[in-house]
Structure formats: structure tokens, C-alpha cells
Specification:
The chain has one domain. Helix content is 68%, strand content 0%. It is built from 5 helices and no strands. It starts with a helix and ends with a helix.
Length: 91
């Protein structure tokens, strides 16, 4: 879980920088089976079974909107777990 929090903090830092793509977006997507399944089903635009960095970034952005309940730009461990639970229940 500490690794996931580190990934989320790294993603937030990179998102605040000028670069529009997070190079760790694919790593985040592949870390959790529920997120990976959701992301592949919803964001694999060319349906090749793989997510590009652009597709993964879109999924990360959408997950952030789902999970960041208090809209402070950060995802806590509790918000992360609630976001994953939401994906499992809804998708």
C-alpha cells in the first residue's frame, strides 16, 4: 500500500508539471487487477489488448476524478480503496 501511495504522490507531482503525460501511468494501471481490467475495457481505443501511455494517462485522470472525493488533488489510501471498490461494483 505504501508503494501505491508513493505512485499516487508521484503522479500528482508529475501532473502539476508542464508535461501532459505521466510516465508512470502504465505502472499505476497494472498495479491493481481491478483498475487494469476497467482501464483496458474503457480506454483501449484501438482494441489491441494493450494500453498506450496516452490511453493509460486518460484512465489515470478518470480514476483520479472517481477517487478524489474531497477534490483536493490528492488521493489518500482510503480514497484509493474506495475508488477501487467503486470500479469493482460498477464495472
Amino acid at each position: 500500500m505504501a508503494r501505491m501511495v508513493g505512485l499516487l504522490l508521484g503522479m500528482a507531482t508529475l501532473a502539476a508539471q508542464a508535461s501532459p503525460l505521466n510516465p508512470r501511468a502504465l505502472e499505476f494501471i497494472e498495479h491493481d487487477a481491478a483498475i487494469k481490467q476497467w482501464a483496458e475495457a474503457r480506454f483501449d481505443r484501438n482494441h489491441d489488448g494493450w494500453l498506450t501511455l496516452y490511453e493509460a494517462q486518460e484512465a489515470v485522470d478518470q480514476f483520479r476524478q472517481i477517487a478524489d472525493e474531497d477534490r483536493d488533488g490528492r488521493i489518500t489510501t482510503r480514497e484509493y480503496r474506495a475508488g477501487v471498490a467503486f470500479l469493482k461494483a460498477r464495472y
